[in-house]
Automatic annotation (TrEMBL):
GO molecular function: aldehyde dehydrogenase (NAD+) activity
Listed GO CC annotations: cytoplasm
Lineage, highest ranks first: Eukaryota, Fungi, Dikarya, Basidiomycota, Agaricomycotina
Protein name, UniProt field: NAD-P-binding protein
Record-linked InterPro entries: NAD(P)-bd_dom (IPR016040), NAD(P)-bd_dom_sf (IPR036291), NAD(P)-dependent_oxidoreduct (IPR051783)
All copies of domain NAD(P)-binding, residue ranges: 12-90
Amino acid sequence: MSAAKTTIFLTGATGYIGATVLQRLLQHPNAARFELTALVRSPEKARILAEEYGVRAVVGSNAELEKLTQLAEGADIVLNIADSDDIKAAGAIMQGLKARYHKTGTKPTLIHTSGTGFLTDDARGMYASDKVYHDSIPEEIEALPDTAFHRNVDLAVIAGDREGYLRALILSPSLIFGQGAGPLFQRGLANPRSIQLPLLIKASLARGRGAGMVGAGKSVWNHVHVDDVADSYITLVDALLRDAEAVPHGRAGFYIIENGEHTWYDLSAALAAALVELGLATAANSEPVPFTQEDIDRFIGNTFLAHLALGSNARGRGEQARSLGWKPKYTTADLFAS
């Protein structure tokens, strides 16, 4: 008699992170033991995923809350890799997992994708903070204000764990770099780019004066390659399948995903050198120049976004995933070389 399959439901499966994770699951040594379901907006992409990759692809969106609840109810593990700030979608997923728990008596797992935006300050590029958060110390995370970025959804997910009907893990990548690569990207099914670094590049190119930065570029962020991010999800899934009770969850279940730090000045300086090398800027523009308010208004469009995504400090240490076996490969040198 064959063992029951592990049912895994993914949101965001054709996104930058989600597609990279889905590829890892499809290529996993134990892939035959997985039953994969993905919520996909495009009927054509859903057809290809089903016919060519054996994924149960359901056409829909995160706005269809009843559908989210139904799909989550059928899953042992939910990987929520869509919008980290969609409180209604997260609530619908949790409602489905609660129904599953009451029906089966077995606690399902929600791996919710957040981000290190919840660690940010208002430095506006003017200083490097000495504060470094450790994901292995719950008290440090709990000291953050409830109003911090992403925090409202994170706290709702943790509350579900506290109520006892699900096992909650919050996976928080830092600045992600690298192009999405692999069969799903080659097939045109997935978005190959991240958000923060392309935002910096596009704004710098659009203003036509070489690489830009917010303020003096002194503030510090962590970074991580998209392939290492995907590996962190697989590390957590593998750990859950080995011994779910041994995996930190709930208030102890924050996983900061990082493999190094950069100042915004150093990142912009690497961008400036690349623009000159590509002939997109001159040697006279080989040093980063602060974005003016006019630059922000015209080329970024949102002062809050510019200060948060390109000018804040967000420093953390990802100790929890490493303790479960995660081994990131890409370094700060790889970020600058990219």
